[in-house]
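Summary for the lay section of the report: proteins are chains of building blocks that fold into shapes. Here we show the chain for 3-hydroxybutyrate dehydrogenase and then a coded description of the shape we predicted for it.
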Amino acid sequence: MAQRHVLITGAGSGIGAGIAHDLAARGDQITVSDLSLEAAEATARAIRDAGGKAEALAMDVASDESVNAALDQLSDPVEVLINNAGLQHVAALADFPMSKWDQLIQIMLVGAARVTRAVLPGMEARNFGRIINIGSIHSLVASPYKSAYVAAKHGLLGLSKVVALETAKSDITINTICPTYVKTPLVEQQIESQARSHGIPKSQVVDEIMLKPMPKGVFISFEELAGICHFLIGPAARNITGQTITVDGGWTVS
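The coded shape description reads as follows.
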């Protein structure tokens, strides 16, 4: 399979960094973007130290100016975009600051649309593009105390379907991967927040809130998500578009 230039947002840590390392090991050229340039550079440096190809960019997906300025710095066109940037805030809606609610929507939904819109003209001109949104099990189901996150992740599915129709005449695809919990710093923070919100120990959050709905009962790995991305980038997936790829250990089976 041809090596591709892959831009990953929010790749300074967590899922984005994990996918970046795996795809680089498979030979793809990675641009690691993150709100923190220091974090992005650390991921890119680790990839290069392992023999891969990577560069780093500071990018605020909630800002048109930042997105456009970052893309202008790229030496090669973006062939694959992975919209991964995200954050979490856990609180009942009555206690949820609207400024924080808006921030989550701006980064995880509007931000994905913003970066997608920015790279689409180049993809259309070259008649090739692969766009992958990192959704969540919360693109499909709800949990208490996560109203903004759930709303944003649900919105990604609608965004993917619309863009799939708008790009159907070109060799461009867009899909959303929806995993359950991946053991990342973000999830570690959620465990602490959920423990406070529910008034229970952190171990109980993992066993009774996070993993209990999953018949397989295990966290999702970076390697699983990167493998799915690798498949969606490749020629075997050229007619898979606008789809939701659910990686939930059986959560939504029944």
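Put simply, here is one thing we learned. The mean pLDDT is 95.
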